[in-house]
Hints:
By secondary structure, the protein is α/β, with parallel strands linked by helices. It has 18 helices and 17 strands. It has helices at 44-49, 66-74, 99-119, 132-155, 172-179, 196-199, 204-215, 225-239, 275-281, 285-298, 316-329, 351-371, 387-396, 412-419, 435-438, 450-461, 465-479, 484-494, and strands at 15-20, 26-30, 36-40, 58-62, 91-95, 156-165, 184-188, 219-222, 242-244, 249-251, 263-268, 302-309, 337-344, 379-382, 399-402, 425-429, 443-445. The strands form 3 sheets. The chain has a 9-stranded mixed β-sheet with strand order 5-4-1-6-7-8-11-10-9, sandwiched between helices. Strands 14-13-12-15-16-17 form a 6-stranded parallel β-sheet, with helices on both faces. A two-stranded antiparallel sheet has the order 2-3. α2 (66-74) links the parallel β4 and β5. α5 crosses α7 (204-215) and α14 packs across α17. Residues 23, 166, 190-191, 346-347 line the site of 6-O-phosphono-alpha-D-glucopyranose.
Amino acid sequence: MGDLTTERSSPTGTAPVLVASNRGPVSFSAADDGTLTLRRGGGGLVSGLSAIDDPSAVWVCAALGEADRRAARQAPDGRLDLAGHDVGGQAVRMLDIDPETFARAYNGVANSTLWFVHHLLYATPTAPAFDAGFRTEWQAYRAYNTAFAEALAAEAAPGAAVLVQDYHLSLVPGLLRTLRPDLRIGHFSHTPWAPPEYFRLLPDDVAEAVLTGILGADRAGFLTRRWALAFAECCADQLGATVDRDALTVTLPPAGGAATGRTTRLGVHALGADADFLRERSHRPDVDERLATLREAVGGRRTVVRVDRTELSKNIVRGFQAYRHLLRTRPDWRDKVVHIAFAYPSRTDLAEYRAYTAEVRRLAEEINAEFATPAWQPLIVHLDDDFPRSLAAYRMADVALVNPIRDGMNLVAKEVPVVSDQGCALVLSREAGAHAELADDAVTVNPYDVIATAEALHTALTMPAGERAERTKRLAAAATALPPQQWFLDQLNALG
Ligand code: G6P
């Protein structure tokens, strides 16, 4: 890995299109005898990238665990495709970053700092406290971003288009521009962006580095106009940048660092659900099987379904409190409804996430203890990952509860209407990016208002079947307006 003084490198690579993200399209696990097994991941980026049918496109990602690191080390320059792995349509370069550096960058800065800032997650009387430990993590984040920039610089053909993803890699566009001024660089934020007052929690030099890092791109993409404008306002507040809200551009004043005087265009690309994939996948036998099991457990009652990562910003605890309030204040619903909540493990290296998972479990037990009867379990919770089971729950849901504190988009809100068998009423937080497109046919909630959320659940549960079906049709149309492949191509084309 190089140090932080980046120098121009000559364009020797051959890739015309590159994607960079922390989590790549594949991951490895190791068996007891050391054999490596490859697993292909899903998600918007994977299906988006399948739009470019070009084997010379390169995806640069980080090795996330020990098995990934071994696979990366065994491959020439980390190029998994060249080591004979079946990684999908494109080439994949997996970066073997020193585990301690990786952990500090990913856990310390990306997930415990930038994620917290953008999702407004701090309990501010005690956190954050940017101390000496944070400075070590910040150095690691810079080294990790530098490793990405150097790998991209090495792989990119002259004038190539590079699409850098998310808050893990906010310094990459600026670093890469210094190394390879010939490249066309895009950055895309999959998160919300913090309002200026909250972004200012960051130490000034860190805030500036993050903003000017992204402004190193020709174009910075966001999931909604609201997040794009929040970013622009942070640039104005922190860097004295000039913002054109109509043209969506940010221009740095002269003498403002690496990206001085440049204008960066902002773009809004509202990633949609992948309808073709979801409709086909949700009717396979493994989903039908799970549907039958769930139906048996529910026994003809109404269902409220939620599916999330066990993620602080998803607001699972207040969702349960709202359900409890509904059962307490509207006892007619007792024995008539089942809340199905799937919350699969995420970021378990972080103490906050482990504590949150414990709280989800504790509250679920408390609710079942308060209301369950021999014939009725009011709340069914699974804290493990089972994708076909999630699709089965989507198909049968009468109500979907999507109540994040704040969310870049929230694809569950878009997937449920696409997959729903009979129509599903959507209770949706006004702080989710998806709300910008789905508000007209959703039941909107303030995610902090437990009583209002309980009322919204009642409204959704009592929505007439015909209205529910009509709304679901319109929700599905809005949710699939920009399929992942088009989402990806639009960004590529916008780079010119
Ligand atoms: C969010 C981020 C993604 C991230 C995902 C899962 O959607 O925007 O970049 O990959 O969460 O988080 P993880 O930490 O497991 O990669």
